[in-house]
Specification:
Structural class: alpha+beta
Order of helices and strands: HEEHHEHHEEHEEHH
Strand content: 25-35%
Number of domains: 2
CATH superfamily of the largest domain: Ribosomal protein S3, C-terminal domain
Strand order of the largest sheet: 5-4-7-6
CATH class of the largest domain: Alpha Beta
Distance between the termini: 81 Å
CATH architecture of the largest domain: 2-Layer Sandwich
Radius of gyration: 22 Å
Shape: globular
Length: 233
């Protein structure tokens, strides 16, 4: 047997297995999102352990997920095992302390508000303010689709505070969430990015703590605007 043929075939098997596993994880995520929507569901993490499959559900109101005496957890575990074929699934529920600092929850709340017919600008600005009030350094909300009755799809961005868009900090400091709203004109996509902490390098450079950073940024922006207006005069 040609070793190159063998390796190529093995790669195909690995790729197929990886894709299949990814699809299964997405199906579990969708299943749990529907089950625990009223519990302030955020997201699910799935990992394999020597004892079985560990499933961690993050929600704002874990009591609704757990149920009385943990009975609902037992029911969900049984259903997951039968529906998705996981070996010895173990369900762990963790509380999201502040829903306004969780990008998934914020995105879902915006989607539900749009489905109730509330204007997208009003909703996006409201949640951007709430995220900043909750202590975030910055927030960016993107709403895309047929907005305000327009015929063509477009997107609009709402941003407050400071947020990074590239490099390592984009992955480590920015929480990302996505949701869809089903409205009469069609599907509207909502993407939310929340930056909870400022990059260490910038804090050291400015000699500030994380909580002070966003206020310093606002002051500097106002000073820059004032300077530009003075120069124009």
């Amino acid at each position: 047997m040609n070793p190159f043929d063998y390796n190529f075939g093995g790669k195909k098997v690995i790729e197929k297995s990886f894709v299949k596993e990814g699809i299964k994880r997405a199906e579990v995520e969708e299943f749990l999102a529907k089950k625990f929507e009223k519990a302030g569901y955020s997201h699910t993490e799935i990992s394999r352990t020597p004892l079985g499959t560990r499933i961690v559900v993050y929600a704002y109101k874990p009591g609704i997920v757990i149920g009385k005496s943990g009975r609902r957890v037992e029911e969900i575990v049984k259903e997951i095992k039968e529906k998705f074929g996981f070996e010895n699934p173990m369900l762990d529920v963790r509380e999201v302390e502040n829903p306004f600092l969780d990008a998934n929850i914020v995105a879902k709340r915006i989607a539900r508000a749009l489905e109730r017919g509330i204007n997208y600008k009003k909703v996006a600005n409201y949640y951007a303010e709430k995220v900043m009030e909750a202590g975030a350094i910055g927030v960016e909300i993107r709403v895309g689709g047929k907005l305000a009755g327009v015929e063509r799809s477009r997107f609009q961005k709402f941003r407050k505070g400071f947020i990074v868009h590239s490099g390592e900090y984009k992955e480590t400091l920015v929480d990302k969430g996505y949701a869809q709203a089903m409205i009469k004109p069609g599907i509207v996509g909502i993407q939310v990015k929340i930056m909870k902490e400022a990059p260490t390098e910038l804090l050291l450079e400015k000699g500030l703590e994380s909580k002070e950073f966003k206020y310093q940024e606002e002051i500097e922006k106002k000073e820059e605007i004032s300077k530009n207006e003075t120069e124009e005069k």
